[in-house]
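Hi there. Long-time user, first ticket. I'm pasting a complex I've been working with (about 1002 residues overall). I'd like to know whether the download I got is complete or cut off, because the file seemed smaller than I expected. Thanks.
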Amino acid sequence: MIPELGHFALVLALVLALVQAVVPMIGASRNRLALMAVGRPAAQGQFFFVAFAFACLTWAFVTSDFSVEYVALHSNTATPLYYRITGVWGSHEGSLLLWALVLAVWTVAVTVFSRHLPDVFLARVLGVLGWISVGFLAFMLVTSNPFERLLPGAPEGRDLNPLLQDPGMIIHPPLLYMGYVGFSVAFAFAIAALLSGRMDAAWARWSRPWTTVAWVFLTAGIAVGSGWAYYELGWGGWWFWDPVENASFMPWLLGTALIHSLAVTEKRGAFRSWTVLLAIGAFSLSLLGTFLVRSGVITSVHAFATDPKRGLFILFLLVVVIGVSLLLYAWRAPRLSGGGSFAFVSRETALLGNNVLLSVASASVLLGTLYPLFLDALGMGKISVGPPYFEAVFVPLMTPVVVLMMFGPFLRWKGDTLGPVVRRVAPAFVASVAIGVGTAFAIGHVTPRTVLGLALAAWVVLASLQQLLARLGERAGASSAARLRGLPSAWWGMWLAHLGVGVFIIGVSLVGSLQQNLDVKMKEGQRAELAGYTFVFRGVQDAPGPNYDAARATLDVSRGGVAIATLQPEKRLYRAQGMPMTEAALDIGPFRDVYVSLGEQLPDGSWIVSLYFKPFISWIWLGCTLMALGGIFAAADRRYRKLAERRAPAAAARQAA
Amino acid sequence: MKPRSKRLVLVGGGVALLVAAVALVLNAFQQNLVFFHTPTEVAAGKAPSGKTFRIGGLVEVGSIQREADGITVRFAVTDTARTIPVAYRGTLPDLFKEGKGAVVQGRLESDGTFRATEVLAKHDENYMPPEAAHAVEQAHKAGATVKQ
Amino acid sequence: MKAKFLVPLFLFLGLVGFLAFGLTLNPREVPSPLIDRPAPAFTLARVDDPSQPFALADMRGKVWLLNVWASWCVACRQEHPVLVDLARQKVVPIVGLNYKEVRGDGALDARGMALEAETGLAIERARRWLAEHGDPYTLSVLDIDGRVGIDFGVYGVPETFLIDGDGKIRYKHIGPITPENLQQVILPKLEEVRRAG
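Hi, the file is complete. Here it is re-exported in full:
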């Protein structure tokens, strides 16, 4: 009964989404307040029904209702409760439902936090979001209904893919989807602006916090996903340039460009058509990512089970959403040119340069991801594009981005003179190069990649310090605490996010240069040495879990005779699917991780053990955390709140009238 | 700088960047594309020597052998028509099994052994890597049409 | 409408073209034009006794499976236990079509081999294989040159055809049969054909 209620709630949500998509749009074009006002309750009602459907599916998982096909395929009575709950979004149908729910959450957030927006504008934003919702709900109901019954019901479920039975997978999809889908708000703002022809600094100011928050979620989601890959896939890699990873990384790159472009549009009124294009692009890439993952066009290590009918539907959706918005762009954007002029040497130019570079980087990732498909379509053979391609393209493109990123804040808006600025940053720049070369020699790993990475990281850190000191110096006289507080939150956001990039580069460079790995055959009592650490194999015991059997090895790790950790990697066999899994064990430290994973047992009773030494790897995620934190600071800037406060009474007055 | 010349510099810079990016991508493609070959193609000498490429197929039943160090593994990948011996040093993926599909990446040695640097198996046990399926399919097609 | 603002749209449309084409690639199921058509007639020598011919018409009135196999086929070894198990239950007669036993083997060079010698080698190899792995077949026939296989549109070995009492092909399974698809697809299909006939 409950699954039917959930199904019915989805149908109702679709109806409300249609109302939300059509009525406010008509109201906006005819300037009828009553029609425009329908958008808000329709959106909230839609949220209620989608959330209800989501709760129904969750209930089916919690109670192990195996008469629902989706539950029977992705859960099991022995699965722990929290993995039964996360099983809801463990595969295609449920993750679409999560997609729809997240979209509804964002839409409701818009209705709640955008009281200061003009009614016509808000009506159009909700209308655009409504159309996206119609598309996804229809997609779900037509091709991928999660409430499909399995009659007679299965006595036992097949269990969730063991790879997904991991704490990281509990939060990774929701975070990622909050990011992906969050760009729909920036997209809706851009389309609404194109429709109304109003695309000024105010529009950019409304858009910015939404875009930034979506970007924060996406950053966090990607970081958690990469952390999951690091410890769950069992060989210590943290990024694979896998099509599914690329699908989330492309919108991130374009979203990063969008955030910066919005800054210019808000402050200087420039780049307006470019900003709109980026807003359309970031969301389009999110949709494209969904298409790539769902359609099976690109086979990837973690592509879900695929179905050509679904692929066709998403492609259709893609064509409608992106095609229509690009057509609208081609029609309206020519009126947007102009805006604040700026000199060649100015902050605008630096930001434009980075924008273009990020877009090109995004395009090169797209090309690398789709190239095998192109060749296959043209009958030119099967190929794969691996990490070497992406690294060969990405590093040269990102190097100028990082240099410019720290150079830009020293430049003034509108125009500046190059000489004094160069003289200001020259010491930091020269010192960075020296640090890069010096450190590379100190760690005994002198390769161009290492030197470049370390120099860039040093440049980011030194220039960040210099920027901080410069800003503090502006308010001479006040106490240092007051000076720190006096800096606007948005400035801290930029500073932290940029610093995060530096920290990230430190992690990537050092782990890339200094990591060590050893595969050894070990028997009880045997020892192995790696990077100054001693590993003693203490044997293997059975360690059954709720829904798996496991062999658990115990290794004592010590360094110079001092015990450091006892690690217990496992080799699991998940019963329902008969699927083996490697569960690595880590000792995480601020400057290095020690990582052990258990291979197979050999006929003579010994085990293959993989040992890894990963210096500075946690800095990768520390850097991502700083970037996300920077985004939060930026979005929390007072001027957005002021904007809301100032407009709120006006809106209230209007409603009362 | 005059607006006109400023525009020229910006456009010129943009074009230069684009050209550089295209050159970068083409160069990276040139050097880093990993082509895929079926065991039959490898046996026929169609695979590049001294270059990394991939072979897909089934891991021949009974072919997995470990050397004394326990780490080096030898096995054979077949598309049911031809079989290529593979040597690999390292841990095998969880889903690597005899009779199942696998894709290996590496180089062909002069003795005809394929020295793999990477062994890929899929995350789903029911799912054969498409490249492996492709190889088997190709072999059958060839068998049905060429070897009449 | 200025042309340069249309550039993103055209780029996107080009991309869509490729994606649409990509969707049509890699079909997991290959539809057979032979379904519900009379199976191509053949008469071939039996593996157990080459002097005795077996003809398709001999099975008239029975619902049966034709399983295409060869000793060089790795995937056949994978499905073989399933067939042996099925044969033990005596649910349905299974006829084996030994497909290009010698010339299909990539490891052998059959060119220039006399047909008689090839047949002799094929029989020896097929018998040894059946002795080693078990023989689920009511009987097996030799398709030395693969002509019958081609008539049946054999795409890859193993393949299995479900043939009804009128000699019509009712279902075709490509690739190794697993216990799951035996239970979920082939046996229900068999029931259906029996009821209809």
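A couple of notes from our side: Confidence is low (pLDDT under 50) at residues 26-31 of chain C. Chain C has five helices and seven strands.
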